Amino acid sequence: MTKSNPLISIISTLQGIGHRMVERIWRLGAGARLFFLTIIYSGESFKRFHLTLREIYSTGVMSLLIIIVSAFFVGMVLALQGYNTLQKYGSSEAIGVLVALSLVRELGPVVTALLFAGRAGTAITAEIGLMKTTEQLSAMEMMAVNPISRVVAPRFWAGVISMPILATLFSMVGILGGYIVAVPLIGVDDGAFWSQMQANVDFQSDIVNGVIKSLVFGVACTMIALFEGFDAPPTAEGVSRATTRTVVISSLTVLGLDFVLTSFMLVI
Amino acid sequence: MDRTKIDLWVGIFVALGVAALLGLAMKVGNLTSSKIGETYSVTAAFENVGSLKPHAPVKSAGVAVGRVDSIIFNSKNYEAVVTIKIDKRYNFPKDTFANIYTAGLLGEQYVGLEAGGDEEVLKNGDKIAKTQDAVVLEKMISQFLFSKASETNTDGKQSAPASQAESKSTELGDPPF
């Protein structure tokens, strides 16, 4: 190591940046390739739908509890905090609008996607990573079973189907949580709560856009989890790192995509 | 876990999802209220629509009778042409008066219809002739200021500039530079 020469240290720093950049782009390409392969080989996950059903059970149904409980608390906190501010302006009846719009447009899809990445994404990555480590995927290939159509595609479609369902449930349960805090606890008028909400929440531009968002997040989260598992080094450490990366990358992707989608939806 | 149990749970899961979506659509969203059945559309030209937006309610006597369908700008006479859809159940006379009101002090704007006394009723494609524009707060304030200024001018010519400047700074809250 030539510590004294600044030129070499600059060059090695640049090399490091370039190496990381190339690796990121390579991973992005490999992920896109896996995505297209998944789409191409997803015929079997619909022909033998029980494969997909089992995955919906483990990703969707098993995530129900965490989604419902957190939605309830998120809704209650929203109502409390919103009331605190709104009552200063003498419009505490607008609490229903505040809770519903923030849940349906933003928090429902985003928080569900974050929880989904933590609850189901990690499970997918760890499962596929371990399958690779124990050479189950290679064994399938030896038996002329395509691991993408047998293992990856059903999990992908399960995630894509589960995510919008979980997000709509999140919004609905959150609104109920907000209702429980706002109406019986704080004493906002029951009729004003719902009627203001109905007057200001649009089915097309709020609810449908929220569902579209959650669909996109479902594709992104599931695909990231699948790719990290598929790409994990076949060691115990490799699988654990891949699982961590799943959560980090999924969360960042969801938040970034959320901004992009929201800006598109507000323009249109 | 055996397959029938998984099927059952997934069925419950999907049913819950559909129920949540229906609940959102019916209870939270405006899907039920925006479906007002058969409608007919009439147009009204305004010089200024303020912040009126498509889907804003059309009310008569405080009851929602329709919705604003579209707002377009007519470049020939520089007016805003508002197309409103009114429920078929309600008929309005030809000389109905269309106003743009604001719900609350700073709330959303809506179109108010006040029925006239004509025998004939509005039909699909008709145009409402009598309209009143939205109230623009800035215009009102400037009108108020002008009237104030002219008042002080008539009071006395020497004190006019000083009091005008004073009233301006107090009304608008401008810091006196």
In short:
The complex is a heterodimer of chains A (about 270) and B (about 180). With about 270 residues, chain A is mostly helical.
Q: What do you see in this structure?
A:
The complex is a heterodimer of chains A (268) and B (177). Chain A has one domain. Chain A has 268 residues and is mostly helical. Chain A contains ten helices and no strands. Helix content of chain A is 87%, strand content 0%. The termini of chain A are far apart. Chain B contains four helices and eight strands, in the order ααββββββββαα. Chain B has an eight-stranded mixed β-sheet, with no helix packed on it. About 5% of the residues of chain B have low confidence.
Main sheet overview of chain A: none
The first-to-last residue Cα distance of chain A is 56 Å
Strand content of chain A: under 5%
Helix content of chain B: 25-40%
Which secondary-structure class do the elements of chain B indicate? Answer: alpha/beta
Could you tell me which chain pair has the largest interface and how many residues each side has?
Answer: A-B, 30 and 26 residues
Count of strand segments of chain A: 0
Number of helices of chain A: 10
Q: What is the N-to-C succession of helices and strands of chain B? A: HHEEEEEEEEHH
Spell the H/E element sequence of chain A: HHHHHHHHHH
Mean pLDDT across every amino acid position of chain A: 91
Tally of distinct domains of chain B: 3
Q: What does the overall shape of chain B look like?
A: elongated
SSE-based structural type of chain A:
mainly alpha
Which residues of chain A sit in consecutive blocks of at least 5 with pLDDT less than 50? Answer: none
